[in-house]
Amino acid sequence: MSVTSPQAVQSREEPVYRPFHVEVRRAERLSPSFLRVTFTGELDDFADHGLDQRIKLVLPLAGEDPGYGFLDGTPDWFGAWRALADDRRNPLRTYTVRGLRRDPAELDVDFVLHGDSGPATRWANRVTPGDRLVVVGPNARCAGSTRALEWAPPPGADRLLLAGDETAVPAICSIVSALPPGVRGRVLLEVPDPGDALPLAAPAGVEVSWLPRPHGAAHGDLLIPAVAGAVRDLAAPAAPAPVDLEDVDIDTAILWESAAGEGGDGFYAWLAGEAGMVKTLRRVLVRDAGVNRSSVAFMGYWRLGRAEN
């Protein structure tokens, strides 16, 4: 007869993601459009996966009460959040872990500053040291997988393409900083301002291009043709026959396709940003260039004119 230890039972019952109560240690303006906020708190159980690990920020309500009482005493933070009245439901936004350190315990999150219309941007524009926030992140005490990332190149992938708009910059920068030597590839980042070209160290064979968007230009005006050119340079010469893609209504559905992360010819692509732009990039790669869709991850991070959770 086997006996399960109390520690193992406790580990299995731990949630995959859990709320971490943190406070702002400092905020650093990186460029005209990017602000890095460094949080501190009880982060010992915050799992460190790097790359494009996603987290949720539970933003405070306006006023003196931030509205975090619903998190007390429940392991089902999301169910408790959904049960809140509309006027008492905290805004919830998805971000990327940009850095995690143990000593001292610090978590970096990069914000894109674009106007003052969204709750995350409003919070970031007014942030000061000592401000409190709740971050829902991967729980290191969970026995199962706590990864929430899409970067999954198959073994042997040595021709890489990463492309995105400003909302994908934190994830792309994190991925590039972890690339092994010897890979070849292109990194294409469309940003709002020439001053948004952040320092980014990449392997010798990886070319990084910052594409400042002209005033009044649409998302993707620079990125889409740049990606088309990069695919011609990086994809296998004998690409498979073009295929028809099912249409995705980005006004009613989330455009999000994970790469299979297996097989392939050594080419792998990761593309993220505004959903309309990503839909076009999907067509450019899979339909027009004939790239195997199992070799590409497409993520519509946000939709122009819509708030996303």
UniProtKB/TrEMBL annotation:
GO terms for molecular function: oxidoreductase activity. CDD domains: siderophore_interacting. Pfam families: FAD_binding_9 (PF08021), SIP (PF04954). This is NADPH-dependent ferric siderophore reductase. Residues 17-145 form the FAD-binding FR-type domain.
